[in-house]
Write a structure and sequence with these properties.
Order of helices and strands: HEEEHH
Number of helices: 3
Strand order of the largest sheet: 1-2-3
Radius of gyration: 28 Å
Structural class: alpha+beta
Distance between the termini: 30 Å
Helix content: 55-70%
Number of strands: 3
Length: 130
């Protein structure tokens, strides 16, 4: 009786564990560019700036324009990271997980009803002997 229930719970646990594991392509974070690809910013999965590379030609820009382009590259990298995270959350099969959990609930109720009926039958037998 408990083997089926244990099996359903294990399936639900595996589904939740799989949903919690980040895909390999997400581990790199996000990347963004600016100034026609001459500035490249990368961010880690936790949103920290990990690298900022610039082609030496960007030094011809004025200081304010250069700063604006750096901000643009970093924001693009953060946007890329956000899109990756949104895609990951969309990849979780919430419907399948809900169905598995519903099956677990239905099975546990059925097994509990079987158990109660067995107890009632046992009680009737004991009363009949006394």
């Amino acid at each position: 009786m408990t083997e089926d229930f244990d099996r359903f719970l294990e399936e639900a646990r595996r589904a939740l564990d799989a949903a919690d594991q980040p895909p390999e392509d997400e581990l790199s974070g996000g990347e963004g560019t600016a100034a026609d690809g001459r500035i490249v910013a990368r961010v880690s999965p936790d949103g920290l700036l990990t690298s900022l590379k610039a082609d030496p030609r960007v030094m011809r820009m004025g200081l304010q324009e250069l700063c604006d382009q750096v901000v643009h590259a970093v924001n693009a990298a953060l946007g890329d990271l956000r899109a990756n995270l949104d895609a990951r959350h969309g990849a979780v099969d919430v419907t399948g997980l809900a169905e598995t959990l519903e099956t677990v609930q239905e099975e546990s109720l059925r097994k509990m009803n079987d158990f109660v009926q067995e107890i009632e039958e046992l009680a009737r037998r004991i009363e009949g002997r006394g």
